[in-house]
Amino acid sequence: MTITMNYLAPFAGAVSRDMTAKLSDFVTPEDFGAVGDNTVDDTLAVQAALDTGRNVLITGRHRITQPLLVKTIGQKIQGSTGPGYMAVAGLYFADLASGTAGLNVLTSGVVIDGLVMQGNPQDKLEWDTTLETTGSMIVFANQAAAYTPLGQNRADVDLTITNCSLGNAKTLVKVVGRGLRLSDCNLVLAVHVLEIEWPSDFVQGTAYDSALKAGMRAYTLRDNRIHGCSGGYVVRNIGAQKNNIHGLMVIGNFIDTNIRMFRGVANESLFSGNVMIHGKSAGYVFTIEGGDCIRIAENTFHGMEDTGNTEPNVETHRELVSGIYVSNASNVAIVGNNFKRVLRDVVLIASGVRNVSICDNVMKNVGMDNDDTTISPPTTRYGVRVAAPLDGLLVRGNVLDNPLRTVANPPLVGVVAGGSLTNWIIDDNILPTLTDGTQTIEIGAHAFASPVSGASANTSRRVVAYTGDGQTSQEFTFRFTPVFVLATIVSGPDRGRSMAVSVTATAGSDQVEISGRTVKVKDAWNASGISYTLLAFT
Fold first, then answer.
1. How do residues 41-55 score in pLDDT, each as one tens digit?
2. Which of 66, 133, 311, 525 could form a disulfide with 521 if both were Cys (CB 3.0 to 4.6 A apart)?
């Protein structure tokens, strides 16, 4: 005798459903014999639950000894973690072999929510070249041809991971293909958080956005807590196709302890609203190896100050080593960030770079190696170091707040051996003057290190200091078109006398003439040996 039971939801408009169908909305590993105590091997039961193609609810602590496979488009894996931190419902991969992944997502549109996933504790080692081919991953996503409607790898990953806790691995998430949202997670105890690559068996579609150069896109890391890592990167873009990446967004994350932000190529990408503190690790917070239209804005990068801890073998401070390294990239905006306690350069411009805007940043206690007497020979670090030819540089509205030091503070911008500038504007930066009680010490009265400043600083500044040459006229060309000019005599018997001219009035134009971007000074405003200032306004 068969008894059929129905279920009726207690809401208006509800219809009766078969109870078996209702209970199958979600399946659990316990439905297939799992114990969920993180002692018994639950691998087969969890895999069986995934193979149903239904949404899977994880309520126990499942020990997993072999890689799990997710093969159903749009499947949701939902954890029920309850109170506590990385303590209850989840998948525990402590037995995974090196080079493998715990959860292998082989299809598109999968959602993982509210789940704890822990890997092999031995894999959260300090990053070095030996870990390029060793170490496990928590989640590996790469569309497998066998589980796609067309039987081809079109790189449609489109994976969502939210409200999860992931830890103990070389790499927490690796995506080989297009599309990731990683948000509101605890991401801890790893070398790298996210690695992005493109599939070697990719088959290009006929639509525009199915081609490689348009398709490698849509990666978002947002509102995560990243902690306790081991010297790698929050995001690494790797592989033979890394130059094609577009649309990477790293926004609103809190990042602390021994990890850097990004390494690789980025196009049309945004890093904004992140807070990184005491991220001590070798090298730069950003290593940009190429790309176009990259914006690093409104972030806080803070090396930890002296804690006063007197216990033996305990660090008392963790400065950031270096800030942002840029090479082979164009149209890079570094805007509105706070940099505090940086040992070396805040920004270094290397070869192959064009058009960089560095504006409205606050740099406090940067270039700290300049005052380290144990470094031999002594170093010279800058807020902005130009180490290669650069066409297009705007440095404006920055604040440099360095303390009094035992050695001279360098200027904000340093053009060093191998570096040069064309098409540049450097103005309106706050470079304070300090005193040690007996003498005044300038922290950058000019924009450049000395070999360059006299040769080129006056050609594109709003304020020009010049000495009259006694000739018929003397010309100055600006990088903008002035509409008003004020010339002032600053030496000699007529010191303090001024002449103001504008493009809308003819008075005084026979003495100080504005023509496009060129200002010409004549007669009394170009007397031999007399010092003047020329203020030009847009």
1. 999 999 999 999 999
2. 525
Whether 324 and 348 have beta carbons less than 8 Å apart is answered as yes
- Strand pairing report for 518-522 and 473-477: antiparallel
CA dist., res. 308 & res. 141, Å (int): 45
**388 and 528 share a domain?**
no
Question: Are 450 and 504 in the same domain?
Answer: no
C-alpha–C-alpha distance, residues 500 and 525, integer Å: 12
Measure the CA–CA gap between 417 and 428, rounded to whole angstroms: 26
The residue to which tokens 């979600």 are assigned: 26
Inter-residue contact 293 to 331 (CB < 8 Å): yes
Q: Residues 211-269: pLDDT tens digits?
A: 777 789 999 999 999 998 888 899 999 999 999 999 999 999 999 878 999 999 999 99
Residue with tokens 């890592």: 229
Tell me which residue of 432, 459, 458, 457 sits closest to 447, measured CA to CA. Answer: 457
Owning domain of residue 481: 462-537
Helices (H), 201-254: 212-215
Q: Could you tell me if 295 and 412 lie in one domain?
A: yes
Which tens digits make up the pLDDT trace of 75-105? 999 998 654 444 578 999 988 887 899 999 9
Same domain, 56 and 168: yes
